[in-house]
């Protein structure tokens, strides 16, 4: 799947399940954010989970409202936003966090 240590085909990551450093399931990769740096695009963040899917499909507010209506919690109305440096893609078929999901959510702003 990868050509070098720093290259991974993003289309093959979408939908992959992500676990944290303790093996706890976090969700699936649904959205990838990148920033242009010169002639390259560098990935900065992964959005994981149901709300990440809503974001990718551009139906975030509709989907979040529907889930709340069906009994979902307002606090989980945001995707897990995983910074590039917190994602281990050494095995692209099995991406994992380099920290626990609790540690990841502690540092959200």
Shape, please? globular
Report strand %: 25-35%
Here the CATH topology equals SH3 type barrels
Low-pLDDT segments, ≥5 res: 74-78
Q: What is the topology, as strand order, of the major beta sheet?
A: 1-2-3-4
Structural class designation: alpha+beta
Query: How many separate domains make up the residues?
Result: 1
Report mean pLDDT, rounded to a whole number.
77
What is the count of helical runs? Answer: 4
* Largest sheet report: 4 strands, antiparallel
Helix content: 10-25%
User: What radius of gyration results from the CA coordinates?
Assistant: 14 Å
List the helices and strands and how they pair.
Elements: H1 10-13, E1 17-19, E2 25-37, E3 40-48, H2 50-56, H3 60-69, E4 80-83, E5 87-88, E6 96-97, H4 101-106
Antiparallel strand pairs: 1-2, 2-3, 3-4, 5-6
